[in-house]
Design a protein that fits this description.
Its EC number is 2.5.1.54. It is an enzyme of class 2 (transferase). Keywords: Transferase. The longest helix is centred in the N-terminal third of the chain and has 14 residues. The protein is α/β, with parallel strands linked by helices and 250 residues long. The strands form two sheets. It has an eight-stranded parallel beta barrel, surrounded by six helices. The chain contains nine helices and ten strands. Bound molecules: phosphoenolpyruvate and manganese (II) ion.
């Protein structure tokens, strides 16, 4: 299936294997530059990272916000890699639109219909993460909210759902991959980082995602996960990211 993601710049990401990688949150210019150069050199097509972070606690690091967007701008200019970052609030749309090639709607906002309507009215691709307690039908309806406004350039991202399993952060629902592909015809990617919350599970779940028919993966990468301002335990080191890509290449 052709899953070419058309970007506003006129370029596109022609790939049967989309690899999105980067830190959970933008933490500094130097760090994001280092990550971007590395992941690109290993074959990643898109750089991820949150400037605005939807944290469970209001006392946790909330992201670098506007400053983070400036960091993205500089890194993009320097490295030449498309960027995906999360839009949490419609009031920030213009600022995010200015730098992002793909606009991410996070799990917590999958049911935010006014936000979905707003991204449906603009012309950049939307990465729509599955709500952590969303059924497949609800997730498809969220995509419909975007599409009905005219934007059908949507990438669906399975990121795990909340179940009674308390061993992993979420329960990665890989059966959703072929279902969403069949029901919507949209590209489907998997985020095994948030899907499991455990870095050791990222490689096996990445392999399993492609086996299930996914068009890509989105993984968190950090030069020093133990020092990460968010999601360190699920972030891959550079060596571990390289190992994941190599195992996908085999
Ligand atoms: C993210 O990808 O940065 C993120 C916050 O994930 P989710 O919305 O799936 O929790
Ligand atoms: Mn994260």
């Amino acid at each position: 299936m052709d899953i070419t993601i058309k970007l506003k710049s006129g370029t596109s990401i022609p790939n049967d294997r989309l690899i999105i990688a980067g830190p959970c949150a933008v933490e500094s210019y130097e760090q994001l530059l280092m990550i971007a150069k590395f992941i690109k050199s290993k074959g990643a097509n898109v750089l991820r990272g949150g400037a605005y972070k939807p944290r469970t606690s209001p006392y946790s690091f909330q992201g670098m916000k506007e400053e983070g967007l400036e960091v993205f701008k500089s890194v993009k200019k320097e490295v030449g890699i498309p960027i995906v970052t999360e839009l949490m609030d419609a009031r920030d749309l213009d600022k995010i639109y200015d730098v992002a090639d793909i606009i991410q709607i996070g799990s917590r906002n999958m049911h935010n219909f006014s936000l979905l309507t707003e991204v449906g009215k603009q012309d950049k691709p939307v990465l729509l993460k599955r709500g952590m307690s969303a059924t497949i039908k609800e997730w498809i309806n969220a995509a419909e909210y975007i599409a009905v406004e005219g934007n059908t350039n949507i990438i669906m991202c399975e990121r795990g759902i909340r179940t009674y399993n308390d061993y992993t952060r979420n329960t990665l629902d890989l059966a959703a991959v072929p279902i969403i592909k069949k029901e919507t015809g949209l590209p489907v990617i998997v985020d095994p980082s948030h899907g499991t919350g455990i870095k050791e599970l990222v490689k096996p779940m990445s392999l399993a995602s492609f086996a299930a028919g996914a068009d890509g993966i989105m993984v968190e990468v950090h030069p020093e996960p133990e020092k990460a301002l968010s999601d360190g335990p699920q972030s891959l080191t550079f060596d571990e990211f390289e190992d994941v890509v190599e195992s996908l290449n085999k």
